Amino acid sequence: MSEQLTAEQLAKIEANRLQALERRKLKAAPPTADGSADKTEKPKQLRKSKMSSGYYEYDFSKMNDTRAGFLEEDPTAGSPEKKKRKVVSIDDIPFDPSSETKCCECGSVDLDMVYLKIFKVMVCKPCIDKIPDKYSLLTKTEAKEDYLLTDSELRDRELFPVWEKANPHKSTWNNMLLYMRQHLESFAAKKWDGLDNLDKEFERRIDEKRERKEKKYKQSVANLRRRTRVEEWEKTRRQRLNIEVAHEHDYEPIDDGSEQKCTICGMVIEVEMFEF
After folding, report:
1. Boundary of a domain, candidates 152, 169, 191
2. Where, by residue number, does the polypeptide cross the bilayer (predicted)?
């Protein structure tokens, strides 16, 4: 027969149980600013679902549209900008509209603002189309090839005002530089002492280039002929001596023994004798 607990023992057990629950609550509660435990119960947070755990937030201001149904993050966003010449907008260049300006060719007041602001030339759009020998625009490569100018000369903005535009082929390439033909032609005439001398220099460089090409071609032909003659001589020699193309040399000593000669093809090699 098990002994039954008395009323005093049951009361003590209940008191111990309540104290243990109180200590458990104090231990689980976060401390407050004064160091004591916060006894206020906070609402229970809901558990995240599988759908919400796989959600990512993107900053669309840093995304690049590939025009193929995909968005990729721009690698240059947030990084220091690369050194690149800034494209100057035509609207950013100051201009006084109150000044009286007329076309230098026909006297029209409807001037082309690009030529006026960048090249400081007063000309209208119809005259630009009518006189391309003066007002047409050339790229840097065309200016170097047509007027035989150097990079250092084309970089001088006092000599050549330039219209700088974004590259139409690829935006990441260097900006496109446009020069006016009249400026290039006047400087080239001074540099080469007249346009006739420029034409002579141009023809001289073409002839020199042609001569280098012909010389290189003749050298390659001579090397080919020399190689063909050697191969033909070697072929005739093998046929005369009845030598196979690939064979194992069979050497025999000649004279004092310092040289050996192949009995099949006649190849001679030097031999060093070591005395021990």
Report:
1. 191
2. none
What's the pLDDT tens digit per position in 151-190?
889 988 888 999 888 888 887 888 889 999 999 999 999 9
pTM higher than 0.85: no
The answer on 181 and 111 residing in a single domain is: yes
Give the 3-state secondary structure of the chain. Answer: CCCCCCHHHHHHHHHHHHHHHHHHHHHHCCECCCCCECCCCCCCCCCCCHHHHCCCCCCHHHEEECCCCCEEECCCCCCCCCCCCCCCCHHHCCCCCCCCCCCCCCCCCCECHHHHHCCCCCCEHHHHHHCHHHHCEEEHHHHHHHHCCCHHHHCCCCCCCCEEECCCCCCCCCCEEEEEHHHHHHHHHHHCCCHHHHHHHHHHHHHHHHHHHHHHHHHHHHHHHHHHHHHHHHHHHHHHHCCCCCCCCCEEEECCCCEEEECCCCCEEECCCCCC
Q: Is residue 265 part of a domain?
A: yes
